[in-house]
Amino acid sequence: MNRPLDETWFTEVFDSQGSAFSLKVNEKLLDVQSPYQHLEVYATQTFGNLMVLDGCVMLTDRDNFLYHEMIAHPALFTHQNPRRVVIIGGGDCGTLKEVLRHPGVEKVTQIDIDEEVTKAAERFFPALTESNDDPRAELLFADGVKWVDEADDASIDVLIIDSTDPVGPAEGLFKTDFLKRCHRILKPGGVMVQQSESPLYHSGSIIRELRRDMQAAGFDSVATLPFPQPVYPSGWWSVTLAGKDCDVCDFREQAAAESAMALLYYTPEAHRGALTLPPFMRQAFDV
Ligand code: SAM
User: Fold this and answer.
1) How deeply is 112 buried, as exposed, middle or buried, from its count of CB atoms within 10 A (0-12, 13-18, 19+)?
2) What's residue 2's pLDDT?
């Protein structure tokens, strides 16, 4: 049906691709201008609560499991023995919750620049913050670029960049210099994973550049895993893994199959399938 939308709809317009995504909203629950970004939370008719930063959809109750499982579990099941994990961004705490499902993880530090995001998640997305009291979790509010700069060499097993898009406060998280520093703070055998935008819209631009920059930063292997994400531009999203002295195209399939986690999307089969790139992505990446 083709009809104009009124103010009872939230719409994210994606100008550069001439596309938009809308959700019918019942009410606005929060509207805060933090020192870093404009944060809104809406109650929607069919997707539960919706978090928006600077006009961009961050997550909804209904489909955030796709993103959070795919940014956490492929990286953790790729590393041989992940014990020390760091999350840059991720203030909604959904990724932290997934990482803490791994019993071998001893400590997870999450560094988000904006405490307002975590406060909003605690109020409006309590299911995502339910593991925040885990004694293995440390929540810091600081610039992730600076934190990585100051971290010790070879001190981290898995580094997760769960950031907003590469504009505004997250711009520095997509730069080559930052990736070199990420490589420096990972132990040998370490794995980095970064949210890497839409396979359809960005394979020939942001994702291709990120992969090249990861290789230029010293990583030995790179893998981009696409997965569905209905509320993000194009309805399809990706994470890109990079390995320091390890192959991120290989993972602990047996451990993933035997794990007792009650997940909603990630399985070893989904992981293996995501590693098999469609031809248009292989062409864009020259692989
Ligand atoms: N799933 C989301 C997506 O792909 O759009 C990302 C969710 S998470 C809410 C993104 C977080 O990155 C935000 O809370 C934001 O504050 C944080 N962030 C952006 N730039 C940052 C920086 N330089 N250091 C630390 N956190 C940052």
Assistant:
1) buried
2) 83
